[in-house]
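Table S2 (continued). Query chain:
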Amino acid sequence: MAQVVVQIIGRNYTMQCDDGQEEHLRGLAAMINEEVDNIVASVGQLGDLRLLIMAALVLADKYSESERARTELERQLADLRTTRSLAEKQALAMDNAAARTLEAAARRLETLASTASTYLAPETEEEEDETGSESGAAGN
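Corresponding output:
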């Protein structure tokens, strides 16, 4: 355990904290002093105990508001995760529907191509025969 001397309202206090937490503890003491200074600037000197109580109430209020905001942010995050999950499911369903539609279109195109080749193939052969016959007749 580390020992740290912090000054609050001009008085030194020796505090213990975990090793490595010394600067954090000094920062907390500075926050208390800042709130006391703000109160003194606003309403004047009220006595150390009353100033510390008022500073503690201000800091508790700030903490309470931070907790409320954190809870609201967590709720919003949960809502966003739910919305994202639904959107992913909808996107997957749309992808699957699009794939089925494309597969159906491809089958239909294959059927049309097959039908077209069936109808066009005999005509092509007949045209070649006619062209070949005319060439042969002209060549005679």
